[in-house]
């Protein structure tokens, strides 16, 4: 019996991309420690929809753990004060009885995770990848999300299928090595610690 559900930001307005988003996160979790204890994953498209769906599930209490996995959009002042960040940035009110551990952040966006794993990028984009154009791994979570996206596009511009949001981004996401990510991204280390406890 699935006892946990995670509402994901991602997939836009396309049913096909919702499937790709869910598959990408499913493979990421399954390959990195959660095979046999997978949560239910729901791709919601935009962040506001993800938050709305999360609030309904949180109130219904049909699952032992309900989580929201979204971009932080901006660097975090305190990685563990998630609702404080969302109130400040999105004006979201913390649902009654919810905890900071129910918010999982991609800080600042999914591209941050992807940019942190050079080995996987080389495997996916092969020799056409311009590794020198990738962002520095130092303080990667403090870098502007738009800049990270531009750098990924630029580093893969010579590739047969350059990096882009959508199907390609979820394909890369599914292959990431979380041990590598945890070395560079405190938000990923935090997310995996929480999921290890809750799933």
Structure description:
This protein has 199 residues and is an alpha/beta fold. It folds into two domains: 4-110 and 178-198, no CATH class; 112-168, no CATH class. Helices cover 48% and strands 10% of the residues. The chain has helices spanning 15-34, 47-60, 82-90, 110-115, 118-125, 145-155, 167-173, 178-184, 186-198, and strands at residues 4-8, 40-43, 65-71, 103-106. It has a four-stranded parallel beta sheet with strand order 2-1-3-4, sandwiched between helices. α3 (82-90) links the parallel β3 (65-71) and β4. α8 (178-184) crosses α9. The longest helix has 20 residues, at 15-34. It is globular and about 50 Å long. The protein starts with a strand and ends with a helix.
Features:
four-stranded parallel beta sheet; 199 residues; alpha/beta; 9 helices
Short précis:
The protein has 199 residues and is α/β, with parallel strands linked by helices.
Q: List the secondary-structure elements in sequence, H or E.
A: EHEHEHEHHHHHH
**Number of helical elements:** 9
**Total domain count:** 2
Q: What structural category arises from helix and sheet content?
A: alpha/beta
The residue fraction in helices comes out at 40-55%
Widest beta sheet: strand line-up: 2-1-3-4
Mean pLDDT: 96
Major sheet: size, sense and barrel closure? Answer: 4 strands, parallel
Q: Strand fraction band? A: 5-15%
Radius of gyration: 16 Å
Total strands: 4
Distance between the termini: 11 Å
Sequence stretches where pLDDT stays below 50 over 5 or more residues: none
- Overall geometry comes to globular
């Amino acid at each position: 019996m699935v006892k946990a559900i995670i509402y994901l930001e991602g997939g836009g307005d396309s049913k096909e991309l919702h499937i790709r988003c869910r598959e990408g996160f499913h493979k990421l979790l399954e390959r990195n420690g959660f095979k046999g204890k997978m949560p239910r994953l729901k791709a919601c498209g935009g962040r506001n929809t993800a938050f709305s769906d999360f609030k309904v599930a949180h109130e219904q209490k049909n699952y032992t753990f309900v989580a929201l996995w979204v971009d932080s959009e901006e660097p975090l002042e305190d990685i563990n004060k998630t609702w404080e960040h969302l109130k400040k940035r999105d004006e979201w009110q913390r649902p009654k009885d919810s905890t900071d551990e129910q918010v999982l952040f991609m800080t600042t966006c999914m591209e941050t995770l992807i940019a942190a794993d050079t080995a996987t990028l080389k495997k996916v984009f092969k020799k056409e990848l311009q590794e020198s154009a990738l962002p520095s791994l130092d303080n990667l979570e403090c870098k502007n999300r738009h800049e990270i996206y531009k750098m990924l596009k630029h580093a893969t511009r010579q590739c047969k299928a350059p990096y882009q949001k959508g199907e390609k981004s979820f394909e890369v996401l599914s292959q990431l090595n979380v041990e590598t990510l945890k070395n560079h991204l405190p938000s990923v280390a935090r997310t995996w610690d929480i999921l290890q406890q809750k799933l």
